[in-house]
## 1
Amino acid sequence: MKAVGLYKYLDIAQPESLIDLEIEKPVPAGRDLLVKVGAISVNPVDVKVRAPKAKTELSPKVLGWDVVGIVEQTGPDCTLFKPGDEVYYAGAIDRPGGNSEYHLVDERIAGHKPASLSFAQAAALPLTTITAWEALFERLGIPLSQEENAGKTLLIIGAAGGVGSIAIQLAKYAGLTVIGTASRSESSEWAKGLGADYIISHYEPFLAQMNAVGLSHANYILCLNATVQHWEHMAEAIAPQGAICSIVETEEPLDLHLLKNKSATFTWETMFTRSLYQTPDMIKQHELLNETARLIDSGVIRTTLTDILKPINAANLRKAHAMIETGRTVGKIVLEHFE
């Protein structure tokens, strides 16, 4: 089958950084689904995994953690899907990625594709949706109740990116007032269009900007960009007994003492945790993807797709990686159709 992968970890400008491949078609076992891939999306994690390093793979490494396709075959222990079902999912970081004609995924981390969306529209959603949902409703403990969230605020740092784009919509569905950070008019307008109530700059202290629009603090903060860079401003802006969640790793320690007097909480979100450690609650990702599909099909949430590249091949994936590396993308980049 066709696939795109790498043997060497190179700068994306190098032709060998991602190459077209022919690899063996996998066979499902256990609770795995064999999915015929129709569309994929590119995320910052693809860029991080592919980034230059002194390492060579003996067998090709296939990336890709956003897939939409059709179930072709199920493993003997599957109970949630059948052949012919349309699915969407992000997959697992410790297994081959979805940049291939066929792909294996544990059914417990896959959901039924939103019926109202095309394959390309749906491919923009899985990884960012899982990340945003887990960050908001599990790590930060935000209740899914508009009544309980009345008057409460969420600050999203990096609101126009992939995770921010879905987090804004989920937060508004939950009844929160959303403050998003952005640095350009394009990203500001995108975030406002998704429902952000206020837009502030992430190049200036957050609290003063929030006070200027009548907000005294943020009950919750979701950091999607440069945790260390924004740490002191987050600590200043968080409410007493508030909570901060970040998805961005740090290269130096964080001063947690800044949160002590406020009894504020800090937590991490990594959407691969459940699949990586085979946690007993893995099926929660299946459930939240199905619930998101329901919200999409009922018009509450919309796709965050902004760019489509065709077909799925190494040249177009190199182009998508280069776009992600600029740090200026809005929404999500999707590729569809193998040729």
## 2
Amino acid sequence: MKNKLLATFLLALLVVSGLFVLHFLPPMSVGGKPLRKVDLLSDIRVDKVLPADSDTLPLPPPVKPAFVDTCKDGMVCIEDYADSTGHGMAHFYEALAGRQTLGRPVRIAYFGDSFIEADILTGDLRKMLQKRFGGSGVGYVPVTTRIAGFRRSVRQSFGGWGSHSITDSVRFDRSLQDLSNHYFIPSPGAFVELKGDTSSVSSCYFVASDSICIAVSVNGAEPQRFRVAGQEGLRKLSVNGRIGTVRWTVERFDSIPVFYAVTMDPSEGIILDNFSTRGSSGQQLGGIPAPLLRQYASLRTYDLIVLQYGLNVASGGLTNYAYYKDAMTRVVNYLKQAFPQASVLIVGVGDRESKDENGNLRTMPEVKSLIRYQQLLAAETKVAFWNMYDAMGGEGSMVRMVESKPAMANYDYTHINFHGGKHLAGILFETLMYGMEQYEKRKAYEAE
């Protein structure tokens, strides 16, 4: 048999050589379809890797997850509904953080009804804030009051004044009302004296379109006399020093002036002004003249405005408080416009008890409904909200406060006393401090 091994080898060599030659042919197609290029070494060839377009495009950094606020177990935290226009808690926290370069005290205006009358709750909250951030004094005090002997944070005496309050049934001129919903008309020699914790500044707020002579005595010393020329709009006259007692006297005037308040303030740190009005729903704040509000914003700038109302709104059998929410929406927006940089905090109504059909005390169902509307008010006006009812302990908490030893609330099961005020002030203080801590953590996280 003839050996064909050589012929087979030559045929294979010829085929391989032909395939190598085909590799160098230009691209071809049959019927419009490209033929695959012949490449015997494709499995072992090391191809030159060209960069793809996607490899050269700069990629954006990974999306950083948003900072999520937390709340301690057992704490009822502030809910902040602020948008880009501000008025949430951010400005207040910024003011506290930068208080040493602010050039004035950080100021809080705390508005409310009889729940905070006589500086209950607010007096203890002021002390806690001043212990933490510095400051002294009691702040803004209306010229006269019906509860001079009841308020513990300042001793006040006065004489020679015609007092006018928004709660008066007649002869109240709303065009003259101040932040405290009062105004006062002096007779010659009218005076007001405050004695309290040592402060650095005492001021007198008034309106006098004609010249007036005012004397001020600090710590019983010889009075300083100021002859002040007439001028339209809100005026502020101040004295400085180490002030434990201050007495302001209106000695003479050419035309009848209007007075509002005297103050005992720090020069730095923090101060809280109590603006309580018995029987108020908060709607009366919308009646303060806009020019006067703007003048207060200039002369006594506030960093936080607190609105705590509701005791005089909750009514048996009524669960729809849309009318109240709408009315207070106008008030909140009015205050936001007058104090464009201030944070605004709405504090929900506290617990209030009524008797059920069996004579047992229980939380008024209407209170719970009102709180939801107050929360909606905060959300719609883009401010902050704190649920004091939940912070007190919720259902039946007022009964527990009345029955505690010592008692923290009165037997009307509506109003707290000084013990209860200190208790709630402590809760609110811790809530504010935790809110500030979270705010600072968020800022640091977002700056990374």
## 3
Amino acid sequence: MSRRLPPLAALRAFEAAARLMSFKRAAAELAVTPTAISHQIRQLEDGLGVALFQRRTRQVVLTEAGRALHPDLVRAFDLMGDAVAKVQGGSRRQVATLSATLAFTAKLLVPRAGAFPLRNPGWDLRLHASDDPVDLAGGEADAAIRYGLGRYPGLTTQPLLADHFAPMASPQLGPLAIADLRRLPLIHFEWGAQATKISVPTWRAWIEHAAAAGFDVAGLDPQGGITFNDENSAIQAAIAGQGVALLSTALVAAELKAGLLAQPFGPVLDGLRFDFVHVAGQQDRPAIAALRNWIVADVAPFLPQA
């Protein structure tokens, strides 16, 4: 059966531009000029008789026809890649990249990373640890675990875990009460870029919450103590007995169970939530499906429940 298809180069140009939402980025990925990408997509639109993009100043947006075409093209190119890999005798391994915060990666992903290749033969896992969100539309990662309010325009969101924060300290400091916060250093960590966009749990927020709940926290300095630039370092400092840290109960669940940390008193402060996210409309991409299946089967069951 003969197939009357548009030129493959034009389809590749459209798929890359739609995935990256940028003619310039598509050009860089395909090693051509942005003008060539624009010309190929225009030829494709002329041949199909429909507009696939709305051209705006410094931005392109998929039309309804473009949104309908793109997912099927993604699957088609993925299938072609799989076919080539089979011919090559399986020598062409594929890589799925997941981005998450430094602490979430270290505490909840690294211990279960070995299950990924077992569940997804022929695939390798790349973990990208960063406290600043990566550009998923720009192809910096296939998917991410974001910490926030769960509202991410242009992304599909799958909730994983609602977070909570409480004072944590090493048991070697002995039994502690709230009054001990006046003599022990408070351990802080910096939240990075996300702190400018959402309200994140801090010692100041905890002190205000405790005061409203009737606890005696008068005179506590919400800024004094020791500050680290990442959450994982703050966890290690608390384990080492350097002071009292306000930590995620989810991220230190293993340390609490092992007796490396203790939660000496309350109250508990509600945090935000962790979500598995990827670019909307790309749920059937093999890399995203492999990551999602691993998270659901091998990571989510071990996450602490509220």
